[in-house]
Amino acid sequence: MFVLNIRIMRSVLIIGAGRSASSLIRYLLAKSETENLHLVVADLSLALAEKKTQKHPNATPIALDIFNTEERRAAIEKASIVISMLPAHLHIEVAKDCIQFKKHLVTASYISDAMQSLDEEVKKNNLIFMNEIGLDPGIDHMSAMKVIDEIRSKGGNMLLFESFCGGLVAPESDNNLWNYKFTWAPRNVVLAGQGGAAKFIQEGTYKYIPYSALFRRTEFLEVEGYGKFEAYSNRDSLKYRSIYGLDDVLTLYRGTIRRVGFSKAWNMFVQLGMTDDSYVIEDSENMSYRQFMNSFLPYHPTDSVEIKTRFILKIDQDDIMWDKLLELDLFNPNKKINLPNATPAQILEKILTDSWALEPDDKDMIVMYHKFGYELNGEKKQIDSKMVCIGDDQTYTAMAKTVGLPVAIATLLILNGKITTPGVQLPIKKEVYEPILKELEEYGVIFNEQTVPYFGYNPDLF
């Protein structure tokens, strides 16, 4: 007697095969046999989808234009679950299709107003739309809520929460004066901090930092084995105050990590106006690097571009800031911008990409640092939690790992019925963060927590 054993493969549709999808795809392919998975990796570029799937028997690369409604819906209808690695503003049509065909959805992006508006319908269809499940947002939420929930379970009252994260170059690949290379979207780096004052709360007082002063108001951090870092404030630190249940917390601050000295140097671009994305520079295509630099400086009949730059930025002759500008070749009269109708920010991005691109053998690094201040039994205490993750290479970067792995793990947990709460959500519930953080440790994403003296921002009280 023969017993027919037919395995029903579960289809995972991954839309978008860019840099952030590398570790995600590798993880799910590695689990595909034991978990009965078949991956459909869809991208506008079939070549890119083929490269990421590497002819794996449990993967099918396809070309997909998400603006082609018929193609998009056909792909979603066949899937067991959908992962969208598209830019955030492109998720919404995918999300609506997922509701129509009753498919769960996972993204690493912030929850937009449009996505949030689908919550009622998602719940009505008993679907899970998991968002903000990458690095930042993602691992930051999960690692923070784990400690906050532990403090509360002991009866502690939260006083302070600070959270910092940065995508950097690993120490072994750190070979320029800026101690920085692009490990993610360069445009986001160039435009960081724009669009309004940074807002946070310290000791119960609201604080604001205008963009013009943002990179001169930094906080210093020490990470054992990796040295000293600095952090500048994120635009809105209070966005998650209610979500984290921290409405009464005295201090709430979120920041971006860089190596010490980066922010002071970056501030030169801000003061000159090079990060402005609101207007186009005439004849930018034929402009040289030197002409671009000079376009932000006043006319002088005899002073060179170099002298004018030193004067405007108040750079002394022995100041490392000058060497940092020279390293970028900003005064070269022969290098052309070659970007038509470009904004200052777009031109600056192009110049920096020439100097800050990761080399083939370079590795990147993610640093995350949380501070939790709380009161328990009348005593003020603090826990510092730190995580450092180093990438493998240019493809399987620390950024791709820390963005892609939580997405992949959450996808499997949803498929296997381990995450059950329906609705449009982010990963702040224990059923989500506990198993994901535990499995991430197997991949080197480990938080080291230590108890330190609570200092707060009122030292005169002690």
TrEMBL record:
InterPro entries: AASS, NAD(P)-bd_dom_sf, Sacchrp_dh-like_C, Sacchrp_dh_NADP-bd. The keyword Amino-acid biosynthesis does not apply. The keyword Oxidoreductase applies. Gene3D superfamilies: Dihydrodipicolinate Reductase, domain 2, Domain 3, Saccharopine reductase, NAD(P)-binding Rossmann-like Domain. Residues 12-129 form the Saccharopine dehydrogenase NADP binding domain. GO terms for biological process: lysine biosynthetic process via aminoadipic acid. One of its GO terms (cellular component) is cytoplasm. GO terms for molecular function: saccharopine dehydrogenase activity. Residues 134-445 form the Saccharopine dehydrogenase-like C-terminal domain. This is Saccharopine dehydrogenase, NADP-dependent.
